[in-house]
Amino acid sequence: MKETFNFKNAGNAETLEINFGPQHPSTHGVFRMVVQLNGEKICGLKPVFGYLHRNHEQIAENLPYAAMMPYTDRLDYVNALANNFGYALAIEKLAGLEVPERAEYIRVMMAELARVVNHITVIGFMLNDLGAFFTPLLYAFRERERILDLFEEITGSRLMCNYLRPGGVKRDLTDAHLAAIRAIVTKFPAFLKEFEALLTKNEILCMRCQNIGILPVDAATNAGITGPVLRASGVNYDIRKVDAYSIYNRFDFKIPLGQKGDAYDRYYVRVLEIRESLKILEQALAKIPQGDIVNKKAFPLLKMPRNFKPPVGEAYARIESPKGELGYYLVSDGTPQPWRYHVRAPSLINLTLLEEMCLGQKIADAIIILGSIDIVLGETDR
Amino acid sequence: MTFSIEEVKKELAVRMPDIKLRTIRDSLLIENPENLPRVAVFLKENPAFLLDYLSSVTGADYLNYLESIYHFYSMAKKHGPLVLRVRVPKHSATVPTLVPIYRSAELQEREAYDTFGIVYEGHPDLRRLFMWEGFEGYPLRKDYAQEDSETLETADVSWLEARGVTVPAEMKQKAQELRDSGERALAQKPLKPRN
After folding, report:
1. Residue B69: what are its φ and ψ, rounded to 5°?
2. Does residue B194 form part of some domain?
3. Which structural domain range is residue B153 located in?
4. Do B103 and B181 belong to one domain?
5. Cβ of A6 and B104 within 8 Å?
6. Beta-carbon neighbour count of residue A264 at 10 Å?
7. What is the C-alpha separation between A73 and A79, in angstroms, rounded?
8. Which of A156, B13, B40, B190 has the fewest CB atoms within 10 Å of its CB?
9. Which one of B121, B137, B169 terminates a domain?
10. Residue B191: its pLDDT value, please?
11. pLDDT tens digits for A321-373?
């Protein structure tokens, strides 16, 4: 069947429609866009989704609540821990579970480490898109690997961590783990300094990224853009501050904001966010108490997941994932399986304004804009 | 959340007395879906609420009817959520779109259309989001019957043969038998949910 794309301006003899992806290395997975070009200028762009669709939401409807946790890793596979976090919060909201103090600290620490991993990966890949092939990316990966090694030691897996549980976490952190986190936190600023010395004032990066893909404030809020992309446009909206979920109100951290909302601001906001995450990690390491890591009331859920029946009702839990607002909507009908499970995926909704951001830009800039939005196809297509 | 659902209900009853509302758990059900855009504009512009951010749009299948669920937040006042829902019958599932008011609904309404078959009237570009054009059925509805991926149908056989794949005669015969009996190759549903 022939595909139809309703471009705003009908093409003429001078325009050219080209297909970009799904097997293109710069589309971060299997993302596809159909671009209408006039010379090198973009005059229309339509994203096409679904190449990684696996009906994630229906899988959940056939599984007990606790059994869905490993599947959430596969949404945003760059930072699985943040996905676990959101899903755990949704179940806790639904079942009215509380989380022990120590588990809260562990969760926050793991989520912030995941944020650091995500942001350096994104910056590395964005530079790859710019043409700085693999040098900055491998610098970033060197540091990322240290954190992933730690994840492997704590959770058993580098990427698909499956670490959080409703009501707590899977394993306790030993003193050796805490020391390893502390070592990462103390060493990281030196790496960031080196990384920034290479990049932040780099002339090529500035010329390619500044004034590219500007996202105006009004359009951004209206289109539901969240995360670093929104904050680069200057909107002070961070769910860690607004909702203060988990124990984020106990930490002192700032929200970096951009001024212009171009690709460069999005790059720089991420660098600054890594610094703030390290600040949170430092404070958490200093304050982490001893105690339980799982709420005892959650034992029936974890030991006998098939018999766990939350009360009839619904819950919407959202967290500030590194990509934006990650929301989980759960409807329970009183059986062991959820009646409805929905993921509000930031990667998908942040693409709403991709066309507007790319209009009038060169085709090479579209790749940078896409790289600066930061999408992961596991989450976009679900 | 700095306002209660009752406040919203009261305010709406004063300003728009013709709109019937019902509280379901922590959400408001708008009895007539046609009124949804009016309520949304009111909530977006009323200085007490300023719900300028539509976070999530999704559908749900409740067997007798479909539901479209909206989660609103305010970026300006940093409060929320307010949950609105509308119910539509399965055979004529049309809900007015919110895209002119909130652009964030654009892809999410397409998703709900794709998976539940809720038609958002007035949506500028209502196409399937994840499935391809020409896909039949709505996969998240509870009565959706899944195709059996291991049994070939005659259409599959001709598709394969057109691409130069030799299909075993046994499979071909089975496909023809299925066609003659007028049935489709559907996956057997488990008697109990898998767990």
Report:
1. -120, 135
2. no
3. 145-189
4. no
5. no
6. 23
7. 8
8. B190
9. B121
10. 56
11. 999 999 999 998 888 888 899 999 999 999 999 888 888 888 888 888 988 88
Q: Which among A223, A331, A342 has CB closest to B104?
A: A223
Q: Supply the pLDDT for residue A374.
A: 86
Nearest one of B96, B124, B105 to B38, comparing CA atoms: B96
pTM comes to 0.88
Give the one of A3, A318, A352 whose C-beta lies nearest to B104's C-beta: A352
Whether B99 and B156 share a structural domain: no
- Across A22-26, A112-116, A271-275, least confident range: A22-26
Interface contact flag, A337 B106, Cβ < 8 Å: no
* Sequence spans of domains, chain A: 56-381
Q: Do B85 and B35 share a structural domain?
A: yes
Question: Mean pLDDT throughout A288-311?
Answer: 83
Domain harbouring B20, CATH code: 3.30.460.80
Report pLDDT for B194.
46
Does B105 map to a domain?
Answer: yes
Instruction: Compute the average pLDDT of residues B2-22.
Output: 82
Residue A67 with chain B: CB contacts under 8 Å: 195
* pLDDT at residue A273, as a whole number: 92
Residues pairing with A48 in the sheet = A32
- Return the pLDDT at A261: 87
Which pLDDT belongs to residue B195?
41
**Is B50 a domain residue?**
yes
Structural tokens at position B4:
């209660």
Position B127 in a domain: no
Question: Cβ contacts of residue A298 below 8 Å, gap of 6+?
Answer: A97, A165, A166, A167, A168
> Strand B21-24 vs strand B27-30: parallel, antiparallel, or unpaired?
antiparallel
C-beta atoms of A63 and B195 within 8 A: yes
B103, B133, B139 ranked by CB distance to A223: nearest: B103
- pLDDT confidence of residue A364: 87
The alpha-helical segments, DSSP class H, found in B23-88 are: 36-45
Q: How many domains does chain B have?
A: 2
- B190 confidence band (pLDDT: 50, 70, 90): low
> B3 Cβ partners below 8 Å, 6+ apart?
B48, B49, B79, B82
Mark whether B77 and B23 lie in a shared domain: yes
ipTM over 0.90: no
For residue range A143-168, list pLDDT tens digits in order.
899 999 999 999 988 889 889 988 88
Question: With an 8 Å Cβ cutoff, is B5 touching chain A?
Answer: no
Mutation pick from A54, A316, A332 vs chain B, by most beta carbons of B within 10 Å, is A316
Do residue B91 and residue B150 come from a single domain? no
Instruction: Give the helix/strand (H/E) hosting A146.
Output: helix A135-155
Question: What is the model's pLDDT at position A76?
Answer: 87
Separation CA A254–CA A272 (nearest Å): 9
Q: Does A7 touch chain B (CB under 8 A)?
A: no
| Residue B161 and residue B116 share a domain | no
Let me know whether B29 and B86 are in one domain. Answer: yes
Q: Indicate if B91 and B20 belong to the same structural domain.
A: yes
B35-72 pLDDT, tens digit each: 889 889 988 888 888 888 999 999 998 888 899 999 99
Interface touch A224/B55, C-beta < 8 Å: yes
CATH number for the domain running over A56-381: 1.10.645.10
Q: How many angstroms away from the CA of A103 is the closest CA of chain B? A: 26
Task: Give the tokens for residue A203.
Answer: 């002339």
